[in-house]
UniProtKB/TrEMBL annotation:
GO molecular function list: L-tyrosine-2-oxoglutarate transaminase activity; pyridoxal phosphate binding
GO terms classed as biological process: L-tyrosine catabolic process
Organism of origin: Solanum pinnatisectum (tansyleaf nightshade)
Keyword Transmembrane helix included in the entry's annotation: no
Keyword Ribonucleoprotein: no
Domain Aminotransferase class I/classII large as annotated: residue spans: 46-205
Protein name: Aminotransferase class I/classII large domain-containing protein
Length: 382
């Protein structure tokens, strides 16, 4: 080691513009900016149709099974210690059994890596796949967390379109033209966020599945997710992907042990009626959402949501006075109506909006009333 040389490297963390853009446009940061635009003089309560977390609404409270399981795990005093790097065995076994219900073969606990929410699973897999010249195929619109991590790990991002007129299916021709020998992964989100679509089985054949209990069990604060390797032919193992994942998890922190302790009870005991109640609630909300959209000429929904809790709607700027783009629309909407909606640009689709409909129906109706009032005021005069 020579210590008399001076370094000429210039450190500039703003150099990578894509990275800065990706970080500046995370859903969270855009929503925070919109919230700061709310007029403090408006005495009405703030309505947010921009969130991804319905847990605060009484109709979307998690099941008592989950609440009891977590309390039991803490009271047992068995889960106060450190976890193992991949997650404790009973928790991995429970996740393997639960996910195997929907598969033609059985997953083993060794296929399961527990993470702090699905968010950390994204971090883990992108770090595990990163290598010089690697590229990844990402959907537009998509989930910005992938862009942010791809930026950090310096994996080149290539975007393929989801087709609104085909229920947001992947443009497969485009995928074929983008992929090459350095393509390490293609991201598929099902049910769709931000589009609310559900893919056919035929359309899905991913080899690594990321997921979490955040949305289905409505406990996003619990931070328990998973990365699952579906590798019956040992291809991932042969290419070193498995070692890379385990290696990354060795140095990264684990989901809280008590929530891992609770997971077998949560997964085994939650009855179908909890999920069907949630799905029925979401269906009612989606119906309200699509009906009210029809009353507001400046937005249209090309494809009714079939899953998830989001609808992507197209914004028709030509019908509006003095609105520059989707971000301008959402900023003025927050200022004038104390209503928060996510601009499409935050999920990669400019001049669209992502509307979250997972809330109390009356709250959703109030939100659409404000949206309509805003449109009436801003509509272009003939
Ligand atoms: C909600 C969501 C996540 C984050 O999940 P957590 O379990 O809360 O970390 C990641 N990707 C998509 C597509 C999501 O909808």
């Amino acid at each position: 080691m020579e210590n008399n040389t001076t370094t000429t490297t210039k450190w500039n963390f703003k150099e990578n513009e894509k990275l800065v853009t990706a970080l500046g446009l995370t859903v969270r940061s855009v929503l925070n900016n919109l919230t700061s635009c709310i007029d403090p003089a408006d005495t009405r309560f703030v309505i947010s149709l921009g969130h991804g977390d319905p847990s605060a609404f009484p109709c979307f409270r998690t099941t008592p099974i989950a609440e009891d399981a977590i309390a039991d795990a803490i009271r047992s005093a068995k889960f106060n210690g450190y976890s193992s790097n991949v997650g404790i065995l009973p928790a991995r076994r429970a996740v393997a059994e639960n996910l195997s219900q929907d598969l033609p073969y059985k997953l083993s606990p060794d296929d399961i890596y527990l993470t702090s929410g699905c968010g950390q699973a994204i971090e883990v897999i992108l770090n595990a796949l990163a290598r010089p010249n690697a590229n990844i195929l990402l959907p537009t619109p998509g989930f910005p967390c992938y862009e942010a991590w791809a930026g950090f790990t310096q994996i080149e991002m290539r975007h393929f379109n989801l087709l609104p007129e085909k229920e947001w299916e992947v443009d497969l021709n485009e995928v074929e033209s983008l992929a090459d020998d350095n393509t390490v992964a293609m991201v598929i989100i099902n049910p769709g966020n931000p589009c609310g679509n559900v893919y056919t089985e035929q359309h899905l054949n991913p080899v690594i599945t990321l997921g979490s209990i955040s949305k289905r069990w409505i406990v996003p604060g619990c931070r328990l997710g998973w990365l699952v390797t579906n590798d019956p032919n040992g291809i991932l193992k042969e290419h070193g992907v498995i070692d890379s994942i385990a290696g990354y998890l060795n140095i990264s922190s684990d989901p809280a042990t008590f929530i891992q302790g609770a997971i077998p009870q949560i997964l085994e005991k939650t009855k179908d009626d909890f999920f069907s109640k949630t799905v029925n609630m979401l269906r009612e909300d989606a119906d309200i959402c699509c009906d009210r959209i029809k009353d507001i000429p400046c937005i249209t929904c090309p494809s009714k949501p079939q899953g998830s809790m989001f609808a992507m709607v197209k914004l028709h700027l030509n019908l509006l006075e003095d609105i520059e783009d989707d971000l301008d629309f959402c900023t003025k909407l927050a200022k004038e109506e104390s209503l928060i909606i996510l601009p499409g640009v935050a999920v990669g689709l400019k001049n669209w909006l992502r509307i979250t409909f997972a809330c109390e129906p009356s709250y959703l109706e109030d939100g659409f009333q404000r949206l309509n009032a805003f449109y009436q005021r801003r509509a272009k005069k003939q």
